[in-house]
């Protein structure tokens, strides 16, 4: 969720029903160097709680120091990313690369647990490839050195995001009588039905939702409503979509400034109006606009065009 789960996006997800959120993952090396982009990612707000700061890196010392820095801004927990499969991260010995060196993963985690008074959690994958799906053993070792929860994405690093997520081993972690910490499953939860099915079938304590919330931050409430009632919420109207888009834009401008806030909002318009027919002309106008008032005007045009169809 790099360049996605920033405070403006988290704000609309919180309103959309997210129970626990994480920052974008933050480079430990960037925090040590006091890089502006990494420091900015430490921004958290009271209404977001509970909120976790997620760190990644390949050097144990730097990860420990970055955990201490992150602790100072008082999140609710520190999360370690051992799951990111992206080449630029893994080739630096970070993210999913630690799945190739479990002793180092365990040592790094143990030192971070000792470096902060906050709960430490871990996000990882099944293994590096099909020959190293050792997550059941790894889960035990991470629990034994003090992590408070574990999230597992049901793919290997080699798979990246291809194919289907396999939750079988996630279920085996939950079945392990030695395990007592919460276990969360992740991967391919793209409908309320699937969230309920996977939670019940594999016995996890909860599900982590990532890509399905992009352009649909109301997805969390849809899942929770389905869990509670077995029924679907009505789909968002065009007015609902516009309202969320405006809130996202407004927060983006407050947090990043008008110029950057408008610029970085451009990546979200297609997602918020996905499935709306013949939307391309409106999208082109939105991404070309440099004025907040002009964007508001375009959104009103969208409402006038589609309100009856999406009421």
- Quick one: CATH class of the largest domain? Alpha Beta
- Put simply, the count of helices is 14
The CATH superfamily name of the largest domain is Aldolase class I
In round numbers, the mean pLDDT is: 94
The Cα radius of gyration reads: 20 Å
Beta-strand share of residues = 5-15%
How widely separated are the two ends?
31 Å
Give the ordered list of helices and strands. Answer: HEEHHEHEHHEHEHEHEHHHHH
How does the major sheet shape up?
Answer: 8 strands, parallel
CATH architectural name of the largest domain: Alpha-Beta Barrel
Structural class: alpha/beta
Q: What name is given to the CATH topology of the largest domain?
A: TIM Barrel
């Amino acid at each position: 969720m790099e360049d996605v789960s920033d405070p403006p996006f988290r704000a609309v997800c919180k309103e959309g029903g997210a129970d626990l959120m994480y920052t974008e993952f933050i480079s430990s090396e960037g925090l040590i160097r006091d890089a502006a982009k990494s420091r900015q990612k430490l921004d958290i707000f009271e209404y977001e709680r509970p909120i976790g700061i997620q760190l990644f890196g390949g050097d144990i010392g730097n990860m420990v120091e970055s955990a201490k820095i992150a602790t100072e801004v008082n999140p609710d927990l520190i999360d370690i990313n051992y799951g990111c499969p992206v080449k630029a991260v893994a080739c630096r010995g970070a993210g999913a690369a630690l799945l190739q060196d479990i002793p180092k993963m365990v040592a790094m985690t143990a030192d971070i647990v000792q470096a902060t008074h906050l709960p430490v959690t871990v996000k990882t994958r099944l293994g590096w490839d099909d020959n190293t799906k050792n997550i059941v053993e790894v889960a035990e070792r991470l629990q034994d050195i003090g992590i408070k929860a574990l999230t597992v994405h049901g793919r290997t690093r080699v798979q990246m995001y291809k194919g289907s997520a396999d939750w079988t081993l996630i279920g085996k972690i939950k079945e392990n009588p030695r395990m007592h910490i919460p276990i969360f499953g992740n991967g391919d939860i793209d409908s309320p039905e699937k969230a309920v099915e996977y939670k019940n079938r594999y016995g996890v304590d909860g599900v982590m939702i990532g890509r399905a919330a992009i352009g649909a931050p109301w997805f969390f409430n849809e899942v929770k409503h389905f869990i509670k009632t077995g029924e679907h919420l009505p789909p968002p109207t065009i007015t609902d979509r516009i309202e969320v888009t405006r809130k996202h834009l407004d927060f983006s401008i407050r947090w990043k400034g008008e110029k950057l806030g408008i610029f970085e909002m451009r990546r979200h318009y297609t997602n918020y109006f996905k499935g709306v027919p013949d939307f391309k002309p409106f999208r082109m106008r939105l991404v070309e606009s440099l004025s907040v008032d002009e964007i508001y005007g375009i959104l009103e045009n969208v409402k006038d065009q589609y309100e009856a169809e999406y009421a």
